[in-house]
Amino acid sequence: MDRRREELLAAALELFSKYDAEDVSIDDVAAAAGASRALVYHYFGGKQELYVAALRSAAVELEARLRPSGDGAVIEELRAGLARYFDFVEDHAAGFAALLRGGPANRAGEVGEIIEGVRRRLVKMIMGRMRVDDPSPALRVTLRSWIACVETAGLDWLESRDVDRGVLERLLVEQMVALLGVAARHDGRVEGLVADFGR
Amino acid sequence: MDRRREELLAAALELFSKYDAEDVSIDDVAAAAGASRALVYHYFGGKQELYVAALRSAAVELEARLRPSGDGAVIEELRAGLARYFDFVEDHAAGFAALLRGGPANRAGEVGEIIEGVRRRLVKMIMGRMRVDDPSPALRVTLRSWIACVETAGLDWLESRDVDRGVLERLLVEQMVALLGVAARHDGRVEGLVADFGR
């Protein structure tokens, strides 16, 4: 990909991570990248497009960080994945909070699709790691719910910062185990997954 | 409040419940209420304002449905509340899905504030019913997470309809108990709440 475009995108992502999108201007991005305003418009067309492009690159980064190694017990990988997730939340604090709390106005379709896409692929990653191709409804709802728990915990942590990150990460692992235990009561196939979890 | 305005609002809410907001026009709302396009503009100014007003009235309706009676065990009230929640989801199916698809994201300022306000007040309602004024961080995260689980389950159900509603409602009650059990491991005060739950 074009190096100049990459530099602009990196500068944009850093600014959108630190500040609410409304408080970041095209001029700020140009200045941070040592480029002209015109060059930003040349590559991205406008601020909304730049925001969407930065969000897309953040999504790619998050998924790369969370890709399971396939080594070790599922529960260990979950622990390691959560630590990397909270690193990401911390690195992109303001942007993450603004995005999930309901940031810039006009962000109907595209932004929502990027976020939904990340969630769907995270559910798939976890299913892959659990060696499940075709989840039962109870398992599907459970994994989607847990992803929502993780997002909620990340947002709550950024807002309040009154819990130790490590405690929150442990809480989330235990929530996953507890939620799978509930699902197992409704679907016998989940029982085996729970048993495999710590192996 | 003005009767004419109320009628327009009721017509708007019904249309926004049945169709994606993009597919509802001012003309549709006017026609459904037997009013002129000009009258809709007179009362609401434009479609975004009308949508926000309809959403606000849906939020009021939802909270009225979910207000706990204070009779019976907390777990019984939770069961009854979930049944009323799913009635609401069913009554406003398309609008609910369009609104929450994209989950905590995909929403601009005013709309985001309405939804966040509902969530905050639901957490408060549950805390009130549990007789907790000042939640520990672990309890706060748990209740917020559970609200996210309920939203996720509602959305999943509208998308897939492959689980019985009653099964999903039971799953959610069990999730609440399981999540509180996890929180109790991190905060001794939650233990007592879990014990009181079935009383």
Automatic annotation (TrEMBL), chains A, B:
* MF annotations from Gene Ontology: DNA-binding transcription factor activity; transcription cis-regulatory region binding
* Domain of life, source organism: Bacteria
Q: Which InterPro entries match?
A: DesT_TetR_C (IPR054129), Homeodomain-like_sf (IPR009057), HTH-type_TetR-like_transc_reg (IPR050109), HTH_TetR (IPR001647)
Q: Which UniProt keywords apply?
A: DNA-binding, Transcription, Transcription regulation
Boundaries of every HTH tetR-type domain copy = 2-62
- DNA-binding region spans which residues? 25-44
Q: Which residues cross the membrane?
A: none
Recorded protein name is AcrR family transcriptional regulator
The organism encoding this protein is Sphaerisporangium krabiense
